[in-house]
Amino acid sequence: MNSQKTKICSGCESEFSCGDISVENKCWCNNYPPIFNLSDGGDCLCPVCFKEACEDKIDAYVETVTPKNAYKNKAISLPKTETLIEGIDYYIENGNMVFKTWFHLKRGTCCENSCRHCPYK
């Protein structure tokens, strides 16, 4: 059963669909890491504003990570998602996927491949 609602973004005031849209009864926003509470900033955000808010929150957190505290970071304890999100987990450079620090933090260990954004080195 589809229980989508039309909402107005509290960030940009655009109209968007929110709610259960898949067989698993999950909203599109469930693919993003649960890293902040929207009750602090209002109602739901549209996909564009939500992604930007996640990127900002993650970037601010990543700046606090050092090799010394990387192995005990909060990303490891978040629920695992199978979906990689461009701009959050990786970016594309010359046709190649480059994993960002957040991706490495979620994995929880160094793969010893000298990754560009490895927080553990």
What fraction strand?
A: 5-15%
How many whole angstroms does the radius of gyration measure?
16 Å
Summed up, the helix count is 2
| Mean model confidence by pLDDT | 85
Overall number of domains: 1
The H-and-E topology, N to C, reads as EEHEEH
Derived structural class: alpha+beta
Written description of the protein model:
Pfam families: DUF5522. It comes from Flavobacterium ginsengiterrae. With 121 residues, the protein is an alpha+beta fold. The chain has one domain. The chain is built from 2 helices and 4 strands, in the order ββαββα. It has helices at residues 47-62, 101-107, and strands at 5-8, 15-18, 90-93, 96-99. The strands form 2 sheets. It has a two-stranded antiparallel sheet with strand order 1-2. Strand 3 and strand 4 form a beta hairpin. The chain is elongated and about 45 Å long. The chain starts with a strand and ends in a 14-residue tail after the last helix. The relative contact order is 0.14. The model has no long low-confidence stretch (mean pLDDT 85).
Name a few traits of the molecule.
alpha+beta; two-stranded antiparallel ribbon; 19% helix
Q: What's the gist of this structure?
A:
This protein has 121 residues and is of the alpha+beta class.
Walk me through the topology.
Blueprint lengths: L4 E4 L6 E4 L28 H16 L27 E4 L2 E4 L1 H7 L14
Antiparallel strand pairs: 1-2, 3-4
